[in-house]
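wait is this the right file?? whatever heres the structure
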């Protein structure tokens, strides 16, 4: 059985808000019986953009991550819904029935991702429906994917086995896996939001020239955990490190010379110029 999944590449997202705007354009003022009632013009972010900043100048980055209903295989919202107000379709999409869900605010409170919103005027819970109303008409992709200029969003309709294989190959992750809700929204390069980096610049101590190709080893607790080389600007970067305070040691070698540098970091850090 093929089911819908969405893959979001955090590294490619440029915070253009096209996905947010397209969702507003589709649902504000538009009623899709059986799928979703009109979205309020203000207050609802069925697709929400988050910003994550790391490091400091001259080595810093800002990354962006859109979130939406995860269309979980074990949806917490469905467990608290009454009268079959929330249904999990065979193709993986979760639908909150706009008629049956009237007055059931507990559906909003049950979502551990904060992806469901309460419509005060209609007294119903609402969320992003994966553009199920369009897919059922033959569309091959949801609007959030169609409008993304950097191809950061990709929808795929494949079997669970195929999706599991792709997730492993591409190191895709879901949000809050410990909850056991089994989301169908996957993220690539999620480390840009929940890890830290250590970087610096290797220079020649005699000439102050940048050193290209220096070997840098990252040591933690006496063991090497990563290795890289400086680029033509002398810069290097170790990314994907745990977001917690820890002691690290750098061992740098090039052209028969070597140096060591120790540091304690609790957030992303640029270590400055390191001389050989």
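ok assuming it is, sequence goes like this
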């Amino acid at each position: 059985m093929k089911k819908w999944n969405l893959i979001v590449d955090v590294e490619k997202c440029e915070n253009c808000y096209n996905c947010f705007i397209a969702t507003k354009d589709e649902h504000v003022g538009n009623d899709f019986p059986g799928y979703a009632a009109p979205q309020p013009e203000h207050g609802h972010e069925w697709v929400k953009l988050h910003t994550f900043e790391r490091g400091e100048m001259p080595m810093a980055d800002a990354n962006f991550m859109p979130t939406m209903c995860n269309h979980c295989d074990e949806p917490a919202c469905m467990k608290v819904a009454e009268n079959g107000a929330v249904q999990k379709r065979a193709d993986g999409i979760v639908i909150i029935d706009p008629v049956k869900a009237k007055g059931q605010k507990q559906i909003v409170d049950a979502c551990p991702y904060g992806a469901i919103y309460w419509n005060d005027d209609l007294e119903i819970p609402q969320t992003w429906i994966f553009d199920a109303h369009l897919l059922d008409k033959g569309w091959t992709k949801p609007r959030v994917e169609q409008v993304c200029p950097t191809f950061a969003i990709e929808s795929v309709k494949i079997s669970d086995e195929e999706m599991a294989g792709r997730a492993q190959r591409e190191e895709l992750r879901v949000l809050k896996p410990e909850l056991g809700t089994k989301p169908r929204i996957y993220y690539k390069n999620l480390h840009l939001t929940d890890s830290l980096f250590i970087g610096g610049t290797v220079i020649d101590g005699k000439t102050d020239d940048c050193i290209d190709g220096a070997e840098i080893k990252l040591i933690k607790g006496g063991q090497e955990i990563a290795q890289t080389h400086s680029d033509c600007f002398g810069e290097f970067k170790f990314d994907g490190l745990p977001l917690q305070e820890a002691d690290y040691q750098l061992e740098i070698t090039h052209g028969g010379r070597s140096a060591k540098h120790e540091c304690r970091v609790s957030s992303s850090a640029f270590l400055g110029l390191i001389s050989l």
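Residues 86 and 96 are 4 Å apart (CA to CA). so i think its the right one actually
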